[in-house]
Amino acid sequence: MVSPTISTEHLTRRFGDLVAVEDVNLRVAPGQFFGFLGPNGAGKSTTIKMLTGLLAPTAGRIQILGLDLVSNMVEVKRQIGVVPEGMALFGRLTGSEYLNFVGRMYGLDRETASKRTAELLDFMQLTDQPKALVTDYSHGMQKKLALAAAVIHGPRVLFLDEPFEGVDAIAAGTLKAMLQRMIGRGATVFLTSHVLEIVERLCTHVGIIHRGRLVAQGSLEELRAGVEARSAGLPGAVTGASPGEKLTLEQIFLLIVGGSRSDGQELSWLG
Amino acid sequence: MPRNGLSLAPHARQQLAAVAQLRGRIFANSLRTFRGRLELASHIFVGLAFVAGGLGGAVGLGGAAWFVVSQRNAEWIGGLLWPVFLFWQLFPLMATAFTQNVESSNLLRFPLSFRSYFLIRLAYGSLDPATAVASLWLLGINIGIGVARPALFPWAMIVLLTFALVNLVLARMLFAWLERWLAQRRTRELMGILFFLFILSFQLIGPLIAVYEHRSIPETRILGQELSSAQRPLPPGLAAAAIAGAVPSQPGSHIVTASVVPFLLLGCYGIAFLWLLNFRLRAEYRGENLSESVGRKALIGGLPAVRPGWNLPGLPGPVVAVFEKELRYLSRSGPMLFTLIVPLFMLAVFRSSGKNEGLFGHAPQLTFPLGAAYSLLLLTNLSYNNFGADGNGTQFFFASPVRFGQIMLGKNLAHTAVFGVEVLLVWLGTCLLYRPPSIGVTLATLAGILFVLPIDLAAGNLFSIYSPSRIEAGVFGRQRASLTTVLASFAIRGALFSGGAVLLWLSRGYRNSWMELLIFLLPAAFAIAAYVFALNRVDGMALRHRENLMSSLGRRQ
To answer: B427-475: per-residue pLDDT in tens?
Structure first.
């Protein structure tokens, strides 16, 4: 049996009285493109922060590539790439200076860092304004730069928090191409996204977190089979699918987290 | 007509109340954290100093007003109003740590009428410490005038109230325009440099006084008359003229010409400032586009040329990377670069502030050590708020496989390099403007730096972790460390410099340069050991405080 690239045991995080993540047991196998979904405030970003060492868990254990995160923090970080929620860019550097800086921080020598920087800038189509500072980049350009920085050292695992948020179709295409290449080279990608169509198209496996608890985990087919088995006999109006039609990820998601709203519910002042 | 409870023109008073409530809520919420409570304590401490300054100034200025009016020299009130005017306008600009300002984008997304927006922007200014202190001073002047001449009290009150309103509007107008220029990086850099030069120019007042204090009485009197006529058309001069003109004993003067005309001209200033403020706020209200996003150019084939990063033999790559990044950041901060010339400028100012060798004429051997100590003070916002300029980038440091000790070391080395350049400039300035410091003083100063700098950097690292403050170049008043950090840094430097002075005093007893050096080197060795000890513990501290660091530096306030 292949040992998982990412695994958590009873992962829990509390903020005072609020339990943001509770007893999460994740398993992500090598080479998987894993989509981590959940409604707003479900605990996605908190989980990804804990998996990348940006936040300490209150309880539980995290293993990345078979290494315990707490006792091997530096070694784990060396092998992962992260695009966190705020992108973690340094605004007063140019794109090439930033990538060079990140490369050196991940232990690349000067020549390798500059060579990879040039390739990444070209691949991400960020060569237009070599002297522009990152702070002057558009949001999409910043996202591409953040992803470029996350892969410059050739990580074995990539954690991406909402990589497609605020990104136009052209930039999204570039990002997707980059991620597919990473998967093709045997890397594992763990991403959170609200855009379920993208997750459905890209991800091979999905985990769904709801109110801090992991409520579903598996391949898309496994999730679909599970939901269909549970909702057997229910009318199409409830599942949202026509007879004989496969459930989409959105339908699966809504059925799992119970996100449907009755048509009768309305706001008093909107009539 | 309201539709579905939504008023088409929301009431300005409701919105003002909502903003006031919001400020109150933000304040109350800030007290939930220890850092917030510490910041409140710092504000109370500073607030008490303001109250003392305000009341003391009010009594002093009131007494002076009573004296000049009793002596039938009411036109000299201008001499009292100028300090009030300068303090009101310049203090908020120079001491941004005590300044509160609102970010317009936070307000403009609400359905505010222009009137409400205007009033809210104006209301923010009325809560500034400068406004409160200057208002107290004006009250003191008014009371002083009233005691000397009770009949003049009501008119003086009207004039001083108008003067206060003119000041209030002028201060808000200056802030609004400054924000406009700060909104774009290039104008921001330019503004920073101009502002910096403006602040520096104040240091020339001392030498100017020194130049004129040796002039003959008639010469000084002529200068005084020239200055007096030059200030008359300006707001403090007009307010003073309006009050003085109402004194009936002024021979040959007509009360309307002497009093009402200056008052009306003062009002004209107020209207002009209001118009300029209105002009600026209207542009903001309409949603001006100050975007600096880079445009797309035609793509050129081939890989871009990328220069490799710096190389500092003997240091690990990540430390060099942080060192390079810090210096690149500094090189793109115009105002920060200009601070490099401040010590030299101050040496020149002191040199020209009197005969012979100016202020240091009595103790020229202190020029170099004091210049070096002053250079260290200029690094406060850098070394005591290491991550302030990094903002969201701080997350990267936690995500990277580099120990925090190495990151801090890279930053400390960069700040030490800047300080080293400063000290070299000070030494050169001392040689050129005064006389070369003796070898003993030079060596003792360098050894003193070896004692002070490591402890200062270690303390700066701790404050950077425990009390971080995001620096936002585009928002006025958000370019500095937290008030707690600034006060603490002053206390630490005070203790370190006192220690250095004691060591210097002890070493002078031996009258031997090498002994002086040795006396400084021994504590320096302890200081370096303490720095290394603290640096080795930075990892744990940073990890324990990572959430506070990332949330404080990541969010816009």
So the answer is: 998 888 888 888 878 888 888 889 889 999 999 999 999 888 887 665 5
- DSSP string computed for B400-446: SSS-HHHHHHHHHHHHHHHHHHHHHHHHHHHHHHS-PPPHHHHHHHH
**ipTM field:** 0.82
Report the distance separating Cα B90 and Cα A109, nearest Å. 50
Give the closest-approach CA distance of A246 to chain B in angstroms. 40
Instruction: Determine, for residues B391 and A125 on separate chains, whether the beta-carbon distance falls below 8 Å.
Output: no
B512-543 pLDDT, tens digit per residue, is 667 777 787 888 899 999 999 999 999 999 98
Q: Is A247 left (phi over 0), alpha (psi -120 to 50) or beta?
A: beta
Given a contact cutoff of 8 angstroms between Cβ atoms, the answer to whether B434 and B367 are in contact is: yes
Angstrom distance (rounded) from CA B397 to CA B480: 21
Q: Report the alpha-carbon distance of residue B142 to residue B239 in Å, rounded.
A: 12
Q: Which residues pair with A208 in a beta bridge?
A: A37, A216
What are the extents of the domains in chain A? 6-215
The neighbouring-strand residues paired with B481 are: none
Q: What is the pLDDT of residue A23?
A: 94
The Cα of B412 is separated from the nearest Cα of chain A by a number of Å equal to 17
Contact present, B404 and B464 (Cβ < 8 Å): no
From chain A, pick out residues whose CB is under 8 angstroms from the CB of B294. Answer: 128-129, 132, 136-138, 141
pLDDT at B92: 76
pLDDT at B298: 46
B352, HSE (Cβ side, Cα atoms, 13 Å): 14
At B62 the pLDDT is: 93
**B4 neighbourhood in chain A, CB within 8 Å:** 269-270
Model pTM? Answer: 0.72
**Out of A11-20, B189-198, B347-356, which region has the weakest mean confidence (pLDDT)?**
B347-356
Distance between CA atoms of A49 and A36, rounded to whole angstroms?
A: 13
Which chain B residue shows the shortest CA-CA distance from A92?
B329
Neighbours of A184 (CB within 10 A): 9
B194 half-sphere exposure, CB direction, 13 A CA radius:
9
**CATH architecture for segment(s) A6-215:** 3-Layer(aba) Sandwich (3.40)
Give the DSSP letter string of A154-169: --SEEEEESTTTT--H
Q: B450, B459, B432: which is closest to B517 by C-alpha? A: B450
Q: Which of B4, B187, B294, B555 to mutate to test the interface with A (most CBs of A within 10 A)?
A: B294
Q: Let me know: does B319 contact B410? Beta carbons within 8 Å.
A: yes
Give burial (CB, 10 Å; 0-12/13-18/19+) of A233: exposed
Question: What is the 3 state secondary structure string of B43-89?
Answer: HHHHHHHHHHHHHHHHHHHHHHHHHHHHCCCHHHHHHHHHHHHHHHH
Phi, psi for residue B495 in degrees, rounded to 5: -65, -45
B contacts of A97 (beta carbons < 8 Å): 325, 328
Minimal Cβ distance to A91: which of B306, B391, B403 = B391
Compute the mean pLDDT over every residue in chain A, rounded to the nearest whole number: 87
Q: Which residues contact B434 (CB under 8 A, 6 or more apart)?
A: B347, B351, B357, B360, B364, B367
